[in-house]
From TrEMBL:
Keyword Zinc in annotation: no
Name of this protein: TATA box-binding protein-like 1
Family to which the UniProt record says this protein belongs: Belongs to the TBP family.
Domain of life the protein comes from: Eukaryota
Disordered, as annotated region: 252-281
GO molecular function ontology, one term from the record: DNA binding
Length: 281
């Protein structure tokens, strides 16, 4: 909408109100507009808000391991699985068989009672895919498998704070929940009741979280961040180089070549008997 400058120096706004303009001649070069912007930016409240937004770091939470368990509700002959199965290892002393999958990368521990646990997945969806592929493999070996009682048991997540942490003062401040025994473990063990999680806090700024699910891992990090923020410490050049090398090594990680590819698609509902009371499936 075009704006007309009246002779009395009053500038009509787009909403019909009048705004007094002191210097009408400098309106064309935008000096008045710039002055108003500077006044707004120099306001203490606005400056504090901008500084808080700039100072707020971004924390990346990496899920390293998702452990799940399920039951096939039938007796499993471990010797037959060891003789006819692929990518399996029979551990007689433990009374179990381990079966390795490549996609998703996971390892299943199988007991003769029909209980199976899968470790190594990086998401809850991958854990369920690995569990169903394990059940499908057992079904192909002739067992009457029924995929039942699937649940995520444990999730391991890690994150790196943008600064080091003074673990000794932190453990002394939070004695009720924190335990620090440098002779036994280099990190502080911090236990949360809600959400239920256990955190390992290291002086390098690394935080490891063990929780029942992925959501609890994120909530635990949100809970611990303001507590350790008070004890932040600038990293040395050696620590920065070591942390950068560790991140690069993690990024370039490759799956082992000895795992054999499991190309079978995820079994559908019609291909395997599934109990109707399995709400998680």
């Amino acid at each position: 909408m075009a704006t007309v400058i009246q002779n009395n120096g009053m500038k009509p706004l787009t909403n019909g109100n009048l705004n007094h303009v002191g210097d009408v001649e400098n309106l064309e070069n935008g000096s008045v507009h710039n002055t108003m912007e500077n006044d707004i930016y120099n306001c203490p409240d606005v400056q504090n808000t901008v500084e808080e937004q700039e100072a707020q770091p971004e924390i990346d939470i990496l899920i390293r391991n998702v452990v799940c368990s399920f039951n096939v509700r039938c007796h499993l002959n471990l010797r037959e699985i060891a003789l006819n199965g692929s990518n399996v290892e029979y551990k007689r002393e433990s009374g179990m068989i381990t079966m390795k999958l490549r996609r998703p990368s996971a390892t299943a521990s199988i007991w003769s009672s029909g209980k199976i646990t899968c470790v190594g997945a990086e998401t809850e969806d991958e854990a369920k895919i690995a569990a169903r592929r394990t059940a499908r493999t057992l079904q192909k070996l002739g067992f009457k498998v029924r995929f039942n009682n699937f649940r995520v048991v444990n999730v391991l997540g890690t994150c790196f704070m943008p600064w080091a942490i003074k673990v000794v003062p932190f453990s002394e401040r939070h004695k009720q929940h924190a335990e620090y025994e440098p002779e036994l473990h280099p990190g502080v063990t911090y236990k949360l009741q809600e959400p239920r999680a256990t955190l390992k806090i290291f002086s390098t700024g690394s935080v490891t979280v063990t929780a029942p699910n992925v959501q609890a891992v994120g909530e635990a990090i949100q809970h611990i961040f303001p507590l350790i923020y008070e004890f932040r410490l600038k990293r040395s050049a050696e620590d920065e180089a070591a942390l950068l090398a560790k991140k690069r090594k993690t990024r370039n990680r490759r799956y082992p070549d000895e795992y054999t590819d499991q190309t079978d698609p995820v079994v559908e509902h019609e291909e395997m008997a599934i109990d109707s009371d399995d709400n998680s499936d």
